[in-house]
């Protein structure tokens, strides 16, 4: 009975050996001897079986008979080497005593070693152990050399030797390719010096003269002119410990490294998106201008500009378009100021300017013109986008001579402008500044008690169904009537509610009031949409709140619609899908507000449980003028309706806009053309006397 096939008795701790011999007794003796020594053994009776077994088990060593019928051992060895990714497996060829002449052929075929029959059984295991050990060492050496080549390639390193006797140079094999020169140009010192940049050549020659007589190490950087252009090289060398007439060293191409360092230095002082100075550089520039102003007596104006609600553009258009918009603003900021202006990006949507001149009124007028210039429409992807800006400024010498203080005052002035609803404000004097900050603090304090004092109320903006010509739903919108300040714009207090953490109790009140009003309007069949803020939506207790409000008010869940923005849902998309799914299970409707057409929007359509899709006013504003805007509205409408969603266009202010979106297939519209946000009695009166836009049903 032969030993053909698997024969893996033995621990295998010393390695797995494939034994290939067509003679069954010899094959059996070899397998038995190796098993007793602790090897795991596989056996094959011919070349075909040997190749199949090799590919299957990947042995640590092959013991291969040369003379076999059909495919002989030499061919098997060649095919084994062809199967390997790298030549790593030791192959010991076994040949007869009168076949010594085949040894050279075996080695050429890829054999590692050979043994002569008859086999010396006492030495067999030792030869195998030695071959395994030598094979492992050779593999490690090859891998180390490969790692060295890869590391040199990544670091752009090459090694060199310099013979002081005849000025001959020898290099690593990759030196010519690395340096982009002909290999012959690297053979002697004189030919290398001829390639060195003329301005660096004398310095390199002096260093080499010192190296000839000195015994220490040296280091130098110089430029080399080769086929790859001008390269910056760093050379380190020292005298050989064993040969006083030989200098050894390494050369590194540091061109890209220096460029990267320069780029890092640039980015540490500049904004990557716009190329403008960042806050750190801007403060330096203000300090330098202050020193010059002391000498020249000139006046400085430090301005702070904020883009109001810029995130809406990102939400509606996507971040790439938002980045393009910021870049366009930065370019206009640089172009509008002239040579005596410096500009900076101080934050995500915040910018700074530094104006220098002879008198303050002219600088103030320049700053005002700059704000108006920045407020003009921006052509972005076939649309004309308008930014709402808020600015503040201070001056030197009027407000001081410290760069950080001036910038802080300009920022505070901008906040006052935002609070007061003006385009720009000058930083007030210290008493006025305290007064302005006190007013802002008073607004915050008033918000804390506004809910308890019942100063909040809801207005409702109607939504028109274009097919029926009827008002079918409303959107609930929060309003604040202060006893002393009167009606305040939501832009003044809603962000404060968010930042102060008051939006949760106020949001709960809004949801409850909207549901109660929906019950009161039960006979009208109106649906009511309620916006969820970021803090509300991320509140773990939101679902419990919704369940409680639905139970307390008894409202029909099918008439309540929860609106969230695209950006809000994408903060935690998996949690959003789970929460919205639970809300829909209660019978509520779910709407995406301010819908855009980016990647995340498509994800909504595919994965989020939705009922309504509201196209943002950014698209509607140009639908009558831009073919691209019309194409976007149409595409979003088709996608939404194909998934069974109701599509609503927001921001409809003219009959022409209404006609366009109706022609594009939109289901419902909302905007001033249908009705402004209004109190419930006004809405009820509108319902009784409503005539659709254009006067026809």
UniProtKB/TrEMBL annotation:
Domain EAL span(s) in chain numbering: 440-691
Keyword Transcription found: yes
Domain of life: Bacteria
Keywords: DNA-binding, Phosphoprotein, Transcription, Transcription regulation, Two-component regulatory system
GO BP term (any one): phosphorelay signal transduction system
Residue numbers of 4-aspartylphosphate PTMs: 65
All residue ranges annotated as the GGDEF domain in the record: 298-430
One Pfam family per UniProt: PAS_3
InterPro entries for this protein: Biofilm_reg_signaling, CheY-like_superfamily, EAL_dom, EAL_sf, GGDEF_dom, Nucleotide_cyclase, PAS, PAS-like_dom_sf
Molecular function terms from GO: DNA binding
CDD domains documented for this protein: EAL, GGDEF, PAS, REC_OmpR
Residue ranges of domain Response regulatory in the record: 16-132
Protein name: Diguanylate cyclase (GGDEF)-like protein
Organism: Marichromatium gracile
């Amino acid at each position: 009975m032969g030993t053909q096939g698997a024969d893996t008795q033995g621990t295998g701790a010393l390695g797995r050996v494939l034994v290939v011999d067509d003679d069954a007794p010899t094959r059996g003796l070899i397998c038995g001897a190796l098993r007793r020594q602790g090897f795991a053994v596989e056996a094959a009776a011919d070349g075909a079986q040997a190749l199949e077994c090799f590919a299957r088990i990947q042995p640590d060593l092959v013991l291969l008979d040369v003379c076999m019928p059909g495919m002989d051992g030499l061919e098997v060895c060649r095919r084994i080497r062809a199967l390997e990714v790298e030549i790593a497996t030791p192959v010991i060829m076994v040949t007869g005593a009168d076949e010594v002449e085949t040894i050279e052929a075996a080695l050429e075929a890829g054999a590692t070693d050979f043994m002569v029959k008859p086999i010396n059984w006492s030495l067999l295991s030792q030869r195998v152990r030695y071959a395994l050990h030598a094979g492992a060492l050779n593999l490690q050496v090859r891998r180390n050399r490969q790692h060295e080549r890869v590391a040199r390639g990544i670091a752009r390193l090459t090694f060199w030797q310099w013979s002081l006797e005849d000025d001959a140079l020898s290099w690593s094999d990759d030196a010519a390719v690395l340096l982009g020169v002909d290999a012959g140009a690297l053979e002697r010192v004189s030919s290398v010096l001829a390639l060195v940049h003329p301005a660096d050549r004398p310095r390199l020659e002096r260093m080499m003269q010192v190296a000839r007589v000195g015994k220490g190490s040296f280091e130098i950087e110089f430029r080399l002119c080769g086929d790859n252009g001008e390269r910056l090289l760093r050379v380190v060398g020292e005298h050989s410990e064993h040969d006083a007439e030989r200098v050894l060293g390494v050369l590194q191409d540091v061109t890209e490294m220096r460029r990267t360092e320069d780029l890092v230095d640039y980015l540490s002082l500049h904004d990557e998106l716009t190329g403008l100075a960042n806050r750190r550089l801007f403060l330096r520039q203000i300090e330098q201008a202050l020193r010059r102003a002391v000498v020249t007596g000139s006046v400085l104006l430090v301005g702070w500009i904020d883009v109001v609600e810029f995130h809406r553009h990102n939400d509606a258009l996507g971040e790439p378009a938002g980045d393009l918009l910021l870049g366009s603003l930065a370019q206009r900021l640089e172009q509008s100021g002239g040579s005596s202006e410096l500009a900076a990006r101080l934050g995500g949507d915040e910018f700074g300017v530094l104006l220098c001149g002879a008198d303050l009124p002219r600088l103030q007028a320049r700053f005002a013109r700059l704000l108006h210039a920045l407020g003009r429409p921006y052509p972005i992807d076939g649309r004309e986008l308008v930014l709402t800006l808020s600015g503040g400024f201070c001056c030197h010498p009027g407000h001081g001579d410290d760069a950080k203080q001036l910038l802080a005052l300009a920022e505070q002035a901008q906040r006052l402008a935002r609070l007061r609803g003006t385009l720009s404000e000058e930083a007030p004097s210290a008493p006025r500044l305290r007064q302005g900050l006190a007013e802002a603090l008073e607004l915050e304090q008033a918000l804390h008690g506004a809910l308890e004092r019942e100063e909040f109320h809801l207005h409702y903006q109607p939504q028109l169904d274009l097919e029926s010509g009827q008002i079918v739903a409303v959107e609930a919108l929060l309003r604040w009537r202060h006893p002393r300040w009167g009606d305040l714009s939501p832009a003044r207090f809603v962000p404060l509610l968010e930042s102060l953490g008051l939006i949760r109790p106020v949001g709960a009140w809004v949801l409850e009031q909207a549901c109660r009003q929906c019950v009161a309007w039960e006979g009208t069949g109106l649906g009511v949409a309620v916006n969820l803020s970021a803090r509300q939506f991320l509140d773990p207790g939101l679902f419990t709140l919704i369940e409680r409000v639905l139970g307390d008010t008894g409202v029909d869940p099918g008439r309540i619609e929860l609106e969230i923005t695209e950006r809000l849902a994408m903060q935690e998309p998996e949690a959003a899908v789970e929460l919205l799914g639970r809300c829909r299970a209660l019978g509520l409707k779910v709407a995406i507000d301010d819908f855009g057409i980016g990647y995340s929007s498509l994800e909504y359509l595919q994965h989020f449980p939705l009922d309504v899709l509201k196209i943002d006013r950014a698209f509607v504003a140009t639908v009558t003028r831009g073919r691209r805007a019309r194409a976007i509205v149409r595409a979003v409408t088709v996608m939404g309706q194909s998934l069974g969603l109701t599509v609503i266009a927001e921001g409809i202010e003219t009959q022409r806009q209404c006609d366009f979106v109706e022609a594009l297939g939109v289901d419902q519209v909302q905007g001033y053309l249908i009705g402004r946000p209004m109190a419930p009695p006004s809405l009820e009166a509108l319902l009784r006397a409503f005539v659709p836009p254009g006067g026809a049903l």
